[in-house]
Amino acid sequence: MHYVxxxxxxxxxxxxxxxAADPAEAVAAPDTETLIREVGRRVRRARERKGISRRVLxxxxxxxxxxxxxxxxxxxxISIARLLEVAQALDHRIEWLVGAxxxxxxxxxxVADLYRRADAETRRTVLQLLSPxxxxxxxxxxVCLLGLRGAGKSTLGAMLARACAxxxxxxxxxxxxxxxxxxxxxxxLYGQEGYRxxxxxxxxxVIESHDQVVLAVAGGIVAEPxxxxxxxxxxxxxxxxxxxxxxxxxxxxxxxxxxMAGNPRAMDELRSIxxxxxxxxxxxxxxxxxxxxxxxxxxxxxxxxxxxxxxLG
Length: 313
Known about the structure:
434 Repressor (Amino-terminal Domain), 2 domains, single chain, 17 helices, alpha/beta, 5-stranded parallel beta sheet, Rossmann fold
């Protein structure tokens, strides 16, 4: 396993129409040649709007100029992988090139693009405006603690739950309950993708079964857009922040030497993980820095946030 991906895991915890029942639907489906021509038209238009030549696009995407010319003329049956490279070189998402709606006239696609470019506060405001019900009603009295392993989520989560007379749930335990096996076996059998699917299912189950709860989640949940969006929408979230040294020290104090084993650059890579996720963690409703603090001191700060903001009623 690559060191960075290994450390991250360690610290985390087109339709086939041939069988269409409706003949009219099958007739309405675009044929391959029409689709190829439309993709070529969109690639050419996106390149021209960006003001770059085929040579520059070729250099950026790794697709030859000759093939790009065929593509733009509607004669190149490009693979999904190569089309993705072209889309990324044009600073577009691939669905802009193959979607049913024209990306330059479709209002929903334009709104989606603006949302992706917006800052965290703007995104939160948009979600609140578009989501049914007031945020307080959707989140009820559910609090979720975010952060990398070693931030104190499990320890402080259990302490906060006792202090506020609320149930405490660790999402990984819910995943184990759903799968019937330890998280380590889930990862070994189904990989990261299988784990993320179970993570989303477990989160949905917690939402359905608890109007009041303190939840602790794995650090990598913020990198799964759909699951993280659900979490932000249905929970009051608090990021437990700590320094890289504090994270590593606490994990090792638990008797786990795996983050450092055989990897002299583990600390540098941990810093890189924290930096790459900082903007995602910062989308939380509140932040508590636990660096250099005893659990009892951090708990006082956590209780103050929860009570002042009315997270648990």
